[in-house]
Amino acid sequence: MRVLIIGSGGREHALCWALSASPLITKLWCAPGNPGTAEVATNVAIEALAIPELVAFAREHAIDLVVPGPEAPLVAGLADALAEAGIRCCGPSAAAARLEGSKSFAREVAAAAGIPIPRWECFSNAAEARAFLSRRGAPIVVKADGLAAGKGVVVAETEAEAEAAINAFMEDGSLGEAGRTVLLEERLEGEEISLFALCDGEHAVFLGAAQDHKRAHEGDTGPNTGGMGAYSPPARFSPALTDLAMGSIVRPALAEMVRRGTPFRGVLFAGLILTEEGPKLLEFNVRFGDPECQALMLRLHSDLLPGLLAACDQELGAFDLRLRNTASIAVVMAARGYPGTPVRGGVIEGLAEAAKVPGVQIFHAGTAWREGKLIANGGRVLNVCAEAANLQAAREAAYRAIRMIRWEDGFYRADIGWRALAAEA
Ligand code: GLY
C-alpha cells in the first residue's frame, strides 16, 4: 500500500511511526511532515490545506490511502476532492466534518440522536446572548461555533468573564467568522475523557481512550493550550463505561448522520465528561486528538492500516482493533512563551540518548533542522512518550528521558497523569 499522511505535528509523527511498522506498507509519505516524520516516511513539501496540490500528488504517486491528521483540510473538503479523484481517504466528507466545524450543528445532531449533552443555547446576536447570560448567570461556558484552533472555549466563572468572551468573539471578531455565532452552555462537573472510535459510516470500533491536560501549568492552572500531555487508559474509564459511551454517544451519532444522508467515516473523537448521571458529550472532533494519538499509538497492538482501509471500504462490521493491556503517556515539551508567542530557534540536544530509555518513543512536532542542528520551530515542540506495564512506570520512563534532553527554552508539565495516580493512591 502507498499511503500519504497529512499534517506536521506530533500526532502525524505518531501515525507515520505506527503505519511504518505495517507489513502492508510499500511506501509512506507525509505532507508537509516534520524532522521526525522524515525518519519513517518521505516528507512532501505540500501544506495540509493545499487541497488541489494534495490531490494531484496522490494521483501522480498512485496513493492507495490518504490519512488526514488535522481537522481543517477535512472541513475544507479534502475527503470530497479525493473521492472525486477515486482515492481512498480515512476521514469524513466536508458535510460530516461539520460535527467539528460547527458546534451548533454537532449539538443539533446530538439532540436529534438522544445523546446526553449539557443544556445549550445558540446566538448570532450579541445583545441576545448578553440578555440570556444575565437571566442565566455564571458559571457558564461560552463556545465559538466555528473552528478556532483551541481558542474558542471559555469556561467563565463570573458573568463579567462570560460577557467579555461574548463581546470578544461576537463583536470584536477576535476569532474571525468562527466566533460570530456562539453557544452558551451549562457547565458540568466531572472528569473529561477523550474517546476515539474508527467509523465506516455505519459501524464504529473502539480505538481507545485517553485523558488530555489542556492547561499550560501544573495542577491544571494557566492558560488553555492544545494539550500539554495525555495518558491512556484514563482513570475510572472502565470497559462498562466504554460500552456505555459507544452505545449512548458514538453509535447514535453515526445513525443520525446516516439518516441525514451524510454518513461519518474516519476517526470520531468524542470529548466526554463523566458526570454523576453518566457520560455526556462535550464535543465531537473528526480526527485523532493531539497528544492523545501519540499515547494511543504506543498501546496499539493491531496493525492500524487494515483498520483504516476497512473504515474506507465500509468493512468495520466484523472488525476488531486491540490495544495492549499496558499504560502509556505523552508529555509535551513546549517552547517558552507557548500558548502565546513561542521562543523559536533554540537548539535541542540529547534526543538520541533519551530515546534509548526502555519503552520511550519521542515524536517531533514543532522542530526543524538549521545548519545541521535540531531547533525549536513552534509552540508544542516534542512529545516524549512511554509505554510500560502501568502508568507509574510509563511516567518514570518518560520523565527520565525528558531530563536527558538539553533545550534551554523548553518547558513541560511534571504532573501528567496526576489524576490517575491520585485515584490509584
Ligand atoms: N488534545 C485535544 C485535541 O486534539 O483537540
What does this entry look like structurally?
By secondary structure, this protein is of the alpha+beta class. The protein has 4 domains: 2-89, Rossmann fold (3-Layer(aba) Sandwich), CATH 3.40.50.20; 120-185, 2-Layer Sandwich (Dna Ligase, domain 1), CATH 3.30.1490.20; 191-312, D-amino Acid Aminotransferase, Chain A, domain 1, CATH 3.30.470.20; 327-424, Alpha-Beta Complex (Glycinamide Ribonucleotide Synthetase, Chain A, domain 4). It has helices at residues 10-20, 37-40, 51-60, 72-75, 78-84, 94-101, 103-113, 126-136, 159-171, 239-259, 292-299, 304-312, 351-354, 391-403, 418-424; strands at 2-7, 27-32, 42-43, 65-68, 88-89, 120-123, 140-144, 153-156, 182-185, 191-200, 204-212, 215-217, 221-224, 229-232, 265-275, 278-285, 327-335, 360-364, 367-370, 373-376, 380-388, 410-411. The strands form 5 sheets. Strands 10, 11, 14, 15, 16, 17, 18, 21 and 22 form a 9-stranded antiparallel β-sheet that branches. A 5-stranded parallel β-sheet has the order 3-2-1-4-5, sandwiched between helices. It has a 4-stranded antiparallel β-sheet with strand order 6-9-7-8, with helices on both faces. α7 (103-113) packs across α10. The relative contact order is 0.13. The model has no long low-confidence stretch (mean pLDDT 96). Bound molecules: glycine. Residues 212, 226-227, 285, 289-290, 292 line the site of glycine (GLY).
Main β-sheet description: 9 strands, antiparallel
> Structural class, judged by helices and strands?
alpha+beta
| Low-pLDDT sequence parts | none
Give the CATH level 1 class of the largest domain.
Alpha Beta
- Our estimate of the beta-strand percent is 25-35%
Q: Overall 3D geometry?
A: globular
The tally of beta strands, per DSSP, is 22
Q: Termini separation (Å)?
A: 46 Å
Give the radius of gyration. Answer: 21 Å
Integer tally of domains: 4
- Spell out which ligands are present: glycine
Question: Whole-number average pLDDT?
Answer: 96
Report the total helices.
Answer: 15
Query: What is the assigned CATH homologous superfamily of the largest domain?
Result: ATP-grasp fold, B domain
CATH architecture of the largest domain: 2-Layer Sandwich
CATH level-3 fold name of the largest domain:
D-amino Acid Aminotransferase, Chain A, domain 1
- Kindly state the percentage of residues in helix: 25-40%
